[in-house]
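Translate sequence into structure tokens.
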Amino acid sequence: MSEWQAGTRRGGWPVKRPSERDREFTEFVTARRAALVRVATLLVSGDLARAEDVVQTALTRLYLAWPRVRPDTAYAYARRCVVNAATDERRSLFHRRERVHAQLPDVVAGEEPGGDEARVLALLATLPAGMRAAVVLRYVEGLSVTEAADAMRCSEGNVKSQSARGLERLRRLLPTHTYDYA
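Result follows.
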């Protein structure tokens, strides 16, 4: 009988059959992938192709760690993997060398290219990566300061200061909007 099929590993963690592990992981990815891509898109300033790459990298790392991930913290762990992958991608040598000069717009049919979403993404792109991550995790994803600090692997004070500075910078850059709610 193989180690995967019976018993426990050191530390008391139960060992799952590969098929059970793969099924659980597939169910998780099916349920949470869209949310992870949304977070990644905001973290990489709206570039959907880069966001997909970041999520793929994060899911690969998550799959390797899947046997050790507790079900109640799986989404938080996956979100941390996305933040780390976005940071790693931004720091990579390939990213620094790659320069895209002409790019077709990724606009959904019926959506204005200059709509509010495009403006928000453009404004988020002006923020440094850490500040952008703090703003996205706190105010788009709705995480608490503690959860955002855990996802960013930094102190709660850092999350508070980065998100406050990020919001202040966005307020200065954001043109005043008037909305007609009548």
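Note: DSSP finds eight helices and no strands in the chain.
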